[in-house]
Amino acid sequence: MLRGMRIRRLWAGVNERLLLLSIASGLLFFAGATVYFELASAAAKKAEREAIAEKSSLFRKILNLKDESYKVLINEWTYWDEMVSFVAKPDTQFAESTFREPSNKYGISCVCVFDKSWKPVYESEVN
User: Fold this and answer.
1) DSSP conformation letters of 50-103
2) Of 10, 50, 81, 106, which residue is the least packed, with the fewest Cβ within 10 Å?
3) What letter would DSSP give residue 109?
4) What is this structure's pTM?
5) Which of 114, 115, 116, 106 is nearest to 127 (CA)?
6) Residue 103 has pLDDT above 70, yes or no
7) Do 119 and 55 contact (CB within 8 A), yes or no?
8) For the segment 110-121, what is each residue's pLDDT rounded down to a tens digit?
9) Is 111 in contact with 123 (CB distance < 8 Å)?
10) pLDDT digits over 43-96, tens only?
11) What is the dihedral of CA 10, 12, 13, 14, to 10 degrees?
């Protein structure tokens, strides 16, 4: 009987240790997963900032065109109420009638219109 009690105590001690080991392993896993997801989130935010900076740089290069007439044309089209409406709801008839004449006048070979998230709204070769 004494021997049976010792085995039970020993077995209870093993169970307690396994339980504590399981809890510690779970907490360690949770902490590791949290750190991993935080690092992944930080990397994604950094990549997003870099992409925005790259697009901003490209946009600045476009706006710094050597020919002032292109700047005037781009600025006129960008802030024009009808153009804002066109970006919200593209209409090919409007695009054809609007972009054909200035494109011929300025010798532009294609016209691309993008929304604020840089998704193409309209693309067309005009000459």
Assistant:
1) HHHHHHHHHHHHHHT-SSHHHHHHHHHHHH-HHHHHHHHS--HHHHHHHHHHHH
2) 81
3) S
4) 0.42
5) 106
6) no
7) no
8) 888 888 888 998
9) yes
10) 999 999 999 999 888 877 776 665 666 777 777 777 778 888 888 898 888 888
11) 90
Which of helix, strand or coil describes residue 110? strand
Question: Closest by alpha carbon to 115, among 92, 83, 73, 91?
Answer: 83
Task: Give CA–CA dist 40/15, Å, rounded.
Answer: 37
Token pair of 123 as six digits? 């693309």
Q: Which residues are CB-neighbours of 112 under 8 A, at least 6 positions away?
A: 120, 122, 123
Q: What residues have CB less than 8 Å from 39, skipping those under 6 apart?
A: none
Gyration radius (Cα) of the chain, Å: 32
User: Do the beta carbons of residue 106 and residue 90 sit within 8 Å?
Assistant: no
Amino acid at 33: A
Predicted local distance difference test score (pLDDT) of residue 36:
96
